[in-house]
Amino acid sequence: MRIDILTLFPQMFQGPFNESIFRRAVDRGLVRVNIHNMREYTHDRHHTVDDYSYGGGTGMVMKVEPLFEAVESIKSRAYPEDRDVPVILLTPQGRLFSQKIARELSQQEYLLLICGRYEGVDDRIKEHLVTDEISIGDYVLSGGELPAMVVTDAVVRMIPGVLGSMESVLEDSHATGLLEYPQYTRPEVYRGWSVPEVLLSGNHARIANWRREQSIMRTLERRPDLLESAELNKTERQLLERLRKSH
Ligand code: SAM
What is the β-pairing status of strands 60-62 and 32-37? Predict the structure, then answer.
């Protein structure tokens, strides 16, 4: 997969994209990330990327020309002509990012992400340039760089081969509409607090059952809204009913 990111602050990406799982994915050729500085697509001496808002107001707005030029230039240099590459604007006004959207995006061969700054972008960018708008939550950040990192991280870990086992991706919270079960590691007892006995039993069927139950209980306690669309079989639905009654 190739991911292009347009930003005014390329340096911000250095740390997160140079560590751990992400770094390994890049080293193994599973993903390529190119960070582009929007100022390189300006033509004036001061490399102006923002201007006052028509109609008045205090904040500045990102100009339309550098963004169009940047996207068109990347498209013509980097993507096959017949490919409809998603051009995604990070914005608090976009559709709310989720594991489902991460999975959907991880199936793309190319992604182009645009990071806004200031009061946001000239709206003609939304109308005529981008194909999707994504928000990472109902709050406002100073720029689209952190949201672009969040989206990229969630997408990259879903590319087959990036994590040691696809199983862990499938069991992660939100993968099946439930939160993940509790996890423990050594020591078996710490300050008198023991690991649940079932996890030491070696009985894989019992462990799988316990984990599924814990997932359902945890989701009911913390995020009952998720249960509306979770994939549950008949026994699990019955368990959920019993848990609801005893709550
Ligand atoms: N005035 C804009 C509004 O109310 O919609 C917010 C602008 S915000 C200060 C600057 C930039 O940060 C946005 O253009 C966007 O790229 C990014 N941003 C801020 N919050 C975000 C969020 N929750 N999700 C995605 N991007 C966000």
Answer: unpaired
How far is residue 114's CA from residue 4's CA, in Å, rounded to a whole number?
9
**Tokens linked to 214:** 């814990």
189-209 residue pLDDT tens: 999 999 999 999 999 999 999
CA distance 181 to 217: 9
> Is 119 assigned a catalytic role?
yes
Q: Where are the beta strands (DSSP E) in 38-128?
A: 50-52, 60-62, 87-96, 110-115
CB 75 within 8 A of CB 111: no
Beta strands 193-194 and 132-135, pairing class: unpaired
Q: What is the pTM of this model?
A: 0.95
Nearest CA, atom 9, ligand 1: 142
Question: 51 forms bridges with which residues in the sheet?
Answer: 61
- Residue 139 CB–ligand 1 contact under 6 Å: yes
User: For ligand 1, is residue 177 a contact (CB within 6 Å)?
Assistant: no
Question: Which token pair is 19?
Answer: 């560590």
Tokens read off for 176: 């099946």
Give the Å distance between the CA of 53 and the centre of ligand 1: 16
pLDDT 10s digits, 206-232: 999 999 999 999 999 999 999 999 989
Distance CA 240, CA 162 (A): 34
3-state secondary structure at position 2: strand
From the candidates 4, 92, 122, 212, give the one annotated as an active-site residue. 92
Q: Which among 175, 193, 65 has a CA at the least distance from the CA of 128?
A: 65
**pLDDT tens digits, one per residue of 131-172:** 999 999 999 999 999 999 999 999 999 999 999 877 778 888
